[in-house]
């Protein structure tokens, strides 16, 4: 501040001048006043460097956008993504199984599949594996393992000898069998409308069985047996789910299947070629991933919203059978499938809606 400016302040000019004179003045070593500092032009910010877009940067941006979309998605939308992915995975598994055909005995394929699936479950369980062996219902666990094996033997045998679309359409009758089992075993109440839908659904299955003067299609009957035993699996899981861990159910299933299949697999063993090993490992891993994805789907989404998506399996099966195995669905298969799908959709809608005072608030 200059002396003129200081003197303009009333009563403060002389004090400021005296103070300035009292302060020491900095000098160089020879007593001369220091030279004024060199003036530098103000530094200008450098222009931003335009980074060349890289493939890694684009992928990172896409991943971030996908994570943000996933966090904002509703539970049913996320469950739908899990469900559709599971159905695609299962389509690959079924195609690989159909591709192997009868070159590898069925018991050997199921044994290899179960060993790989059990190994994956043990790896996922990790340190909690000892807890997974604890069960309060060992008898029911063994029974579930046996009916799981029966369902696999029937269902996979049918896949080898009848078109994929027909086998898949018949498998939808599992929901109808669950309705009957819910009444007989779980003592649930079923109204007249659901009984009518169940009866119509079974008529659709009978149409797909294509009865003729020579009798019913044996392999189609095997597919019905797979659906029947599959309903038993559903009911047993519903009972076990109240007290057992998911890992416990899967581990005991693996133990039962491997013990029962050990001798038949050894007796009929045919050493797979490298290509066959590839397909065996592929169908095993995809089968495990499919089970995990479907479980995850029903954990995050509502069953009533996700269950109808299961019917897209029929489209995938028909496409796979037509493109890779030259299978064309017959008119009876399409007609029967339409009846079964309609009856099943109605049943699931009634299950989801429920009624006050009834036991139908959730699907079986």
TrEMBL record:
Region entry Disordered, spans? 1-49
What the entry lists under Gene3D superfamilies is as follows:
1.10.3730.20
Q: Where is the EamA domain?
A: 78-209, 219-347
Transmembrane domains' residue ranges: 81-100, 112-130, 142-162, 168-186, 193-210, 216-237, 249-271, 331-348
Look up and give the membrane topology term. Answer: Multi-pass membrane protein
**Keywords for the protein's UniProt record, in alphabetical order:** Membrane, Transmembrane, Transmembrane helix
Where is this protein localized, as stated in its record?
Answer: Membrane
- Which family is it part of? Belongs to the drug/metabolite transporter (DMT) superfamily. 10 TMS drug/metabolite exporter (DME) (TC 2.A.7.3) family.
| Name the record gives this protein | DMT family transporter
Upper taxonomic lineage: Bacteria, Pseudomonadati, Pseudomonadota, Alphaproteobacteria, Hyphomicrobiales
């Amino acid at each position: 501040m200059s002396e003129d400016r200081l003197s303009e302040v009333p009563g403060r000019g002389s004090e400021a001048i005296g103070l300035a004179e009292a302060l020491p003045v900095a000098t160089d070593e020879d007593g001369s006043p220091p030279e004024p500092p060199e003036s530098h032009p103000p530094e200008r910010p450098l222009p931003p460097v335009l980074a060349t877009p890289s493939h890694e940067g684009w992928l990172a941006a896409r991943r971030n956008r996908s994570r943000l979309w996933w966090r904002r998605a509703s539970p049913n939308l996320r469950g739908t993504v899990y469900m559709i992915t599971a159905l695609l995975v299962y389509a690959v598994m079924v195609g690989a199984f159909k591709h192997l055909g009868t070159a590898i005995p069925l018991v050997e394929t199921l044994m290899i599949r179960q060993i790989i699936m059990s190994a994956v479950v043990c790896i996922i369980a990790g340190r909690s594996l000892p807890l997974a062996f604890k069960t309060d219902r060992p008898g029911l666990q063994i029974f579930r393992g046996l009916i799981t094996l029966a369902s696999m033997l029937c269902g996979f045998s049918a896949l080898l000898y009848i078109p994929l679309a027909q086998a898949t359409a018949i498998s939808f009758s599992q929901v109808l069998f669950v309705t009957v089992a819910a009444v007989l075993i779980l003592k649930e109440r079923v109204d007249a409308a659901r009984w009518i839908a169940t009866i119509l659904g079974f008529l659709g299955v009978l149409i797909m069985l294509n009865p003729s003067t020579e009798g019913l299609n044996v392999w189609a009957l095997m597919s019905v047996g797979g659906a029947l035993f599959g309903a038993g699996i559903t009911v047993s899981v519903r009972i076990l789910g109240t007290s057992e861990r998911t890992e416990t159910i899967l581990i005991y299933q693996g133990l039962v299947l491997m013990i029962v299949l050990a001798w038949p697999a050894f007796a009929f063993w045919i050493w797979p070629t490298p290509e066959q090993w590839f397909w065996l490992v592929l169908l095993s891993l995809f089968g495990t991933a499919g089970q995990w994805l479907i479980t995850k789907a029903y954990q995050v989404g509502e069953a009533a919203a996700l269950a109808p998506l299961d019917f897209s399996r029929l489209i995938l099966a028909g496409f796979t059978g037509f493109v890779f195995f030259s299978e064309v669905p017959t008119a009876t298969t399409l007609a029967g499938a339409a009846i079964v799908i309609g009856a099943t959709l109605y049943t699931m809608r009634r299950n989801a809606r429920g009624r006050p005072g009834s036991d139908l608030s959730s699907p079986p």
